[in-house]
Design goal:
The chain is an alpha+beta fold. The chain is 16% helix and 47% strand. The protein has a single domain, classed as Sandwich (Immunoglobulin-like), CATH 2.60.40. It is built from two helices and twelve strands. Strand 7 and strand 8 form a beta hairpin. The longest helix has 21 residues. It is elongated and about 50 Å long. The chain starts with a helix and ends with a strand.
């Protein structure tokens, strides 16, 4: 009988561990355009979803003052492509912080293309950094680099 209880408890513990490893408090994707017209410029967008009570820090400058890692998109751009204005959602106050939370967090960055840029393929890299927390705990910051080749016509 004791062996059976131990086996059941071990199976339960392994199931909990497997479920915990699959849990992701934040998911996101970075969306690059495939082709762009030189005269129109383009936007790169990161779409975030936070799970339940988890949130990420908005890039307001306020969170950094309190030691938190704000959500950032940083770009390595070819010559002749310059950043324009970012498109940021309105943050929500949470105590002394400004946060994003939910299933539709859209952070965009507009880019302008110099008229002297020749048509062709150009590689752009986007480094995404964020920190996620809930009311009890903060996870270590996460940083990922995404690279994409964009055709400029």
């Amino acid at each position: 009988m004791m062996k059976r209880v131990v086996v059941i408890l071990l199976n339960f513990a392994m199931l909990q561990t497997a479920l915990a490893q699959d849990f992701k408090p934040v998911t996101y994707e970075v969306i690059f355009p495939e082709k762009v017209l030189r005269s129109e410029g383009f936007t790169i967008t990161a779409m975030f979803q936070t799970n339940g009570e988890w949130y990420i820090y908005a890039p307001t400058g306020l969170n950094e003052k309190h030691g938190m890692i704000e959500t950032k998109l940083q770009f390595d751009l070819p010559e002749g492509i310059t950043p324009g204005d970012p498109d940021l959602p309105m943050p929500r106050p949470y105590g002394m912080y400004q946060i994003y939370q939910g299933n539709d967090i859209k952070i965009g960055q507009r880019f302008n293309i110099n008229p002297d840029v020749r048509p062709g393929d150009y590689e752009i890299s986007c480094t995404v950094t964020y920190q996620t927390c809930n009311k009890s705990v903060c996870l270590p910051p996460d940083t990922q680099v995404y690279k994409k080749t964009i055709r400029i016509n």
